[in-house]
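Recall that a protein's primary structure is simply its ordered list of amino acids. Everything else, from secondary elements to tertiary packing, is in principle encoded there. The following example makes that idea concrete.
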Amino acid sequence: MAELTDELPVSGRPEGLVFDGRTFFVWWGQGADELDRVAARGGRVLTFPSARACVDAADDAGWQHDLD
């Protein structure tokens, strides 16, 4: 079985998604391969309850911001 690793955009920002009537946020941006990426850990997409919580987690993890 392949080892699951973290996947991150080179730089990112919070992006809100609505699913089943609820809004949640992911850390979204462009990967090193120039494809769109969302932050994932162990094969699972990381989700956050608010844009602020997403930015706070990014800051804590040292992720690079791409805030317009």
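The radius of gyration is 12 Å. Residues 51-61 form the longest helix (11 residues).
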